[in-house]
Amino acid sequence: MDQMSLTVTQVIQAILAPAVMISSSGLFFLGLNARQSSLLNRIRLLNNERRILSRELTHQGQFDAGEDIRFLSLEHQLNNLLRRAWYVRNATLCDTLAVVFFVLTSFAIALHFFMGITLLERVPIFLFITGMFLVLVGVICLAIDELIAYSVILLEVQDKQSIMVDFFARSNERNPGEQSKM
């Protein structure tokens, strides 16, 4: 095998190396897209529930205790879900930009080899490291989203518990004799 064909083979391998990162970023993107879709649907549902409760408030003039707890819980959940959506959006943007940098890395390697421009010698490594940094930032955003997701679930559970406690307290007030029969 002559030196030129070995060099061409090495260059093709070097050009295709960023393709691994492009593929992994694509899988990461699919997960982020599913998460973002789920978040946005949840925000729409909770916002609709909040809108319905607001209409009831304008008609009734006030909430009962359970509705008041639910309305406050909706406000907290929506704020947290919007924060989560912001982090997932940023992770998605970082991942998309990372793919751009990995593709540019492949082009820079090819240009360096075929044009022999010495100025392009370090450009591919710079582009690749920038892409990896963007992947890291995207993963950090996803980790922050995961932490916030846990707090949203805690709010939902606390909301349900508060409503149940309120329900049982009101039912005991209405039927004090029922408790002594149990």
Describe the structure.
It is a single chain. The chain has one domain (7-173). Helices cover 92% and strands 0% of the residues. The chain has helices spanning 3-60, 65-115, 123-174, 176-181. The protein is rod-shaped and about 90 Å long. It is mostly helical and 182 residues long. It has four helices and no strands.
- What composes the largest sheet? none
Distance between the termini: 91 Å
Number of domains: 1
Mean pLDDT: 82
Shape: rod-shaped
Rg from alpha-carbon coordinates: 28 Å
* Percent of sequence in beta strands: under 5%
Uncertain residue segments: none
Tally the helices: what do you get?
A: 4
Protein name: DUF2721 domain-containing protein
Organism: Coleofasciculus chthonoplastes PCC 7420
Transmembrane segments: 12-34, 93-117, 123-144
Pfam families: DUF2721 (PF11026)
SSE diagram, text form:
Blueprint: H1 3-60, H2 65-115, H3 123-174, H4 176-181
Helix pairs in contact: 1-2, 1-3, 2-3
Task: Write a brief caption for the model.
The chain is mainly α and about 180 residues long.
Give descriptors for this structure.
182 residues, mainly alpha, rod-shaped
